[in-house]
Amino acid sequence: MEIFQTVFEWYMANLNYFTIYLLMTIESSFIPFPSEIVVPFAAWKAGEGTLALWGVILASSAGAMTGAIINYYLAMWIGRPVLYRLADTKWAHLLLITRESVEKAEKYFVKHGKASTFIGRLVPAVRQLISLPAGLAKMNIGAFLLFTFMGATIWNITLALIGYFAYDKREFILPYLDWIMYAVGALFVLWLSWKGIQVYRKRRKGSVQ
Prior knowledge:
Blueprint lengths: L1 H12 L3 H12 L10 H10 L4 H35 L2 H5 L4 H14 L3 H4 L11 H6 L4 H28 L1 H4 L3 H32 L1
Helix pairs in contact: 1-11, 2-4, 3-4, 3-9, 4-9
């Protein structure tokens, strides 16, 4: 219990506009890091008065945009053959990126067109990689930035409002904070384990073939 409390206190103490921006840049690039453990907690601090709610939304959206731009230009620069070869490497698999996940994002882009960079920002498992097919297709950068900003901002506003209004209910939440942190941590570990098992099975299947 005390360990989670210590980690939570350290995390909250170091959560500011810059760290929000940095973590959301990571979340929006090719490194798996859930925005659900960044924006709501930052908005909680806004409820305390330590940060401004508009600042949390702005920093998180700016980070999301930066990560998306990194993916966009990376895909445009290296091209589809190299991107898929990289997706087959063990280093990509350690980041929970596989050929199948890239294919899923590309099919989503093909199906929904330019609007996928807006819609995809709201869809789990697609949000992280949707900028890659946009880069591969050399989508107009202005349209890409506009749709990405709209989708990312709507997502971040939703998460921010959850955290902000949760602060008003803190008298009900704080007594169970340790258990909440346990649950969040357990879900995150289970998610990573599930993704890791998927990657392992696909690699094993590929080696057998």
